[in-house]
Write a structure and sequence with these properties.
Blueprint (H helix, E strand, L loop, with lengths): L6 H16 L6 H8 L3 H7 L3 H20 L7 H18 L1 H5 L1 H4 L4 H27 L10 H21 L10 H10 L8 H12 L9
């Protein structure tokens, strides 16, 4: 059984969920306080402004990204790749508003603004490393000099997949399978060059990913 979150942590987690569901610009500190079941003055004790909440969530986002970027392929290139892209998709899902709503707050949380370009390049590096492991294990037939292009294109599909479905009027909430659809779509870039057994394993791994509540 998980220990209950401390008030400061509970406020940040509630704000993250509300910002994902409704958009950063649509959620006031009063709404966050009400969702937490506390007085707005109590929220202000922990976070003076909505901006300080944004920065706190940005710090959590940074920790999640660094943990994911630390992942490296080990002894199972296919299983390792599935785990890594699953972690990447969880990151895009759990901190969705930070990607989607920049226009609502004018600039990123400070830590995001500073690190975003480097995180993007390191994500390309990471995907390229995992794809190279598939090539090395003879699970993927792909020119090594074109692996960077594949890594970039895969990142773009994963990064914008949920918003594409939302903008097309398709449901992206819990149980809709939008996470799985996005992961399957990125496979269309290269599954024709995977050995059949590897392709089957990746599809099976994607099918096991359960969609948790997402913003509509």
């Amino acid at each position: 059984m998980k220990a209950p979150l401390k008030t400061r942590e509970r406020i940040a987690e509630t704000a993250r969920v509300l910002f994902n569901e409704q958009g950063y610009g649509a959620v006031s500190t009063a709404a966050v306080a009400a969702a937490c079941g506390i007085a707005e003055g109590n929220l202000w004790y922990h976070y003076k402004t909505r901006r300080t909440l944004l920065d706190a969530i940005g710090e959590r986002f940074a920790l999640a990204i660094e943990a994911r970027l630390a992942l490296r392929p080990a002894n199972d290139p296919v299983g390792d790749y599935a785990a890594m892209v699953g972690a990447l998709m969880a990151e895009f899902r759990d901190f969705r508003f930070l990607y989607r709503d920049q226009q609502s707050y004018g600039e990123h949380a400070e830590v995001v603004g500073i690190n975003a370009p480097g995180w993007t390049e390191r994500t390309f590096d990471q995907l390229e490393l995992y794809l190279a492991a598939l090539v090395e294990a003879e699970q993927l037939d792909w020119p090594r000099e074109r692996l960077r292009d594949l890594a970039v294109n895969a990142t773009i599909i994963l990064r914008y997949g949920l918003e594409h479905y939302r903008e097309m009027g398709e449901a992206t909430g819990s149980g809709t399978g939008s996470v799985q659809r996005t992961l399957r779509r990125h496979l269309t870039l290269f599954e024709h060059r995977l050995v059949p057994a590897a392709a089957r394993r990746l599809h099976a791994a994607i099918a096991q990913i359960e969609a948790t509540p997402l913003a509509a």
